[in-house]
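Ticket #4471: structure export looks truncated?
Reporter: QA, pipeline team
Priority: medium

Steps to reproduce: submit the single chain below to the structure queue and open the exported record.
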Amino acid sequence: MTTEPEIISALEHAVALGERSVQVAAYLGNDLLVDASIGPAPPDAVFPLFSMGKAFTALAVHVQAERGLLDLDAPLADVWSEYGNAGKQAITPAMVLAHRAGVPQVPGWLTPQRLGEWDAITAALAGEEPLYLPGSTNAYHSMSFGWLLGEAVRRTDPQQRPFGQFVADELCTPLGADALWLGIPTEVAPRVARLDYPDSPPTPPPDALVHRVVPSAVSLGPDAFNLLETQRACVPAVGAIGNARSAARLFSILAVGGRDLVSARRIEAMLHPRPEFEKPDLVYGRPLPVGVGGLWIDAPGVVAPERRGSILSHLGAGGTVGWAELDLGLSVAICHDRMFGSVAEHPFGRLAEAVRSVAAAHS
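Actual output as written to the record:
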């Protein structure tokens, strides 16, 4: 592990651009290469990771597929019989991973107090009709992604564990990622960094699709995600909480070829873009670099676009990011408590460059 001057300088630059508390961690192969932080958050702080949780959810799905317990191209209803109705009979896990299942919507009654009602939420999703013909349209499943795939994992788990427990047992514990949760224990609550969003994003029009995909009561920002009720709930797509070291450790599964959890061939397949990759996604109105395996194949702001073909990543709302550079064996995560949207200079661009510089020096 190292805290080279270029890492410290890059963290200070991020603060100069408006950041408060930032953590960065990186593994080169199995070795913890970088583990550094800046700002007022204590050293044991953990952070809301938002959609970085989709990467861990996707990994859990691929673990089940690798074990022969879940066929990604078979109907989801094969393992979740209640789901096979109302035009959803053909929806497959692969469609959900690519955000092409046509069911991005979630129950409008969701509130922070009800996010922990797994059975009620999945039952409601089982009763929904698709908004689009399954397999035909790119419409980002911002929240439904996690419950649909998490339920598939739960139902194919011989032990029938809650999804958060599955991720803890099968991903986190074997890799020593001891500070990452999908639903924190109560005793962890004092360690969770308090989010701030000084430049809140513009509010979409009232009829925008995003309001059905992420109801306003659980919008992805401080109001909902600073609440203990939200933090304790298992919300796989947007509710992971952890530190940079543990998040980077899970991305190392991808960076080193699977760690006996998924095959190198499966990881290589994840690099393929989803169909109609360049078209604007209907939920967010812009192209999203989504791959067929549930991760992004770019890491905007921190990895140059020409590196596509060797990058698997996932961003989270407000700028948190984790990624794996497969050709380098490098995995990185950056967590913070100051959320941002569009910026003139990405606050973590220089930090990512510093990490790669340190990695090159230690290769």
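Status: closed, not a bug. The export was complete when the record was re-opened. Leaving a note from the reviewer for reference: Strands lie at 22-28, 31-38, 47-50, 180-182, 240-242, 311-315, 321-325, 330-336.
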